[in-house]
Amino acid sequence: MAAKGNMMAVNLAAVAKNNNGSASAVLVSVNGMEKFMSPSFFESENVTEMYSDIITATLPKTKHKELPEPVNFTVFHKKFQAGLVTCVYWQEQGEETRWSVDGCTASFSNENLTVCSCTHLSTFALLLQTQEQDEDNSLLEAVNLFCMSVGLAFLALAIITFLLCTWNPKINNTARLHLSICLFLGHLLFLVGVSRTENAVACAVIAGTLHFLFLSSFVWMLLETLQLFLLVRSLSKVQVIQKEGLRALYLLPIGYGAPLVVVGVSAAVYSEGYGSKDACWLSKDRWMEWSFIGPVCTILTLNCISFCVILWILWPTLVNMKSDISQSKDTRLITFKIGAQFFVLGCSWILGFNQNSVILKYIFIILNSQQGTFIFIVHCLLNKEVREEYRRWLSCLCRSHDYRD
């Protein structure tokens, strides 16, 4: 028998032998009962959550309800998450009710379903048990808070520098500026809002905004690689480079329009996928997280291919150019900066997709939170013109301080 995909296998012929040759069974999938039959009614030291639909199985109009052999329930999971899957039934003892495991065991389980073998019929469900947060998670949160704060400070300095400094007219900082803005807003919102799960609507808005901001940062990283490709192509044709890459008029619609389309389509297809009771991020239900992982993997692959093509085109050109030519120096420096940026921004998220150990989690937190620090060092501190601008700012501040004294 089946109800909403969940199945029951019961030997009715064996039951009928003890009931004058006839027997019948009913299997029902119950909706909306989780609030009344919540996992809190299960006694466990672990954190428990409902992992399946609640189903009820009975033998109507049957006097002798003893089962000659166990009945098997094939119950599908609501999502996939690591933990202990437990088969439970709703036990009523007088006025006391609770979830119990007596007479039910999990005979088989994989990522999608669990087979429960039970010696009686009742109301059944699957509960997922996970360990409570320990001291390692507390330390992880403290490290994350400190590293994110440092990264946000340097991102703010990078944004101020890109806006206020006088740059070489050949350099187009549009992609770097908007990359820094998206990372700053995304990391700040993640820091203060990812755990605000009390209000479902607010949590969904936070999750959608984070989805948009982090996707935008990857698109801007891809656009910066495109900028470098256009620069290298001009260099290989021995053209005079007026300005690096495309104008802001073309970059802005792409940098923000493409992520907006992805978020809009995802919200239209499955709006419930934004936010959960654990975090204001993409749900794992119905593969919702792939609306972020898919575009990111595509962009990282395109970036890797583009960068290899750039090096292939650039190598013979730089070999034939004298090392003291300023254009050659600029191109080498830009290539190094973009390559290093791709490594730091891309590799951090690759680690984020695979966090099976505590060490990988720490590495991900450090690399991901220090993206702003890296951008500030590479694009600001390593730029001679910017350093001179900083000196002028400091000298102006010192003179104004002397005047006040």
Compact summary:
This protein has 405 residues and is α+β, with helices and mostly antiparallel strands.
General description of the model:
With 405 residues, the chain is an alpha+beta fold. It has two domains: 129 residues, Chondroitinase Ac, Chain A, domain 3; 269 residues, Rhodopsin 7-helix transmembrane proteins (Rhopdopsin 7-helix transmembrane proteins, Up-down Bundle). The protein is built from ten helices and eleven strands. The strands form two sheets. Strands 3, 4, 5, 7, 8 and 11 form a six-stranded antiparallel beta sheet that branches. Helix 3 runs antiparallel to helix 4. The longest helix has 37 residues. The protein starts with a strand and ends with a helix. The model has no long low-confidence stretch (mean pLDDT 82).
Question: Poorly predicted ranges (pLDDT <50, ≥5 residues)?
Answer: none
Fraction of residues in helix: 40-55%
Give the biggest sheet: 6 strands, antiparallel
The helix/strand order is: EEHEEEEEEEEEHHHHHHHHH
Q: What would the CATH topology of the largest domain be?
A: Rhopdopsin 7-helix transmembrane proteins
The overall pLDDT, averaged over residues, is 82
Supply the CATH superfamily name of the largest domain.
Rhodopsin 7-helix transmembrane proteins
CATH top-level class of the largest domain: Mainly Alpha
Question: Radius of gyration in whole Å, from Cα?
Answer: 30 Å
**Number of extended strands:** 11
Q: State the distance separating the first and last CA atoms.
A: 88 Å
Architecture (CATH level 2) name of the largest domain: Up-down Bundle
Strand content: 15-25%
Number of domains: 2
The global form is elongated
Number of helices: 10
Q: Structural class, please? A: alpha+beta
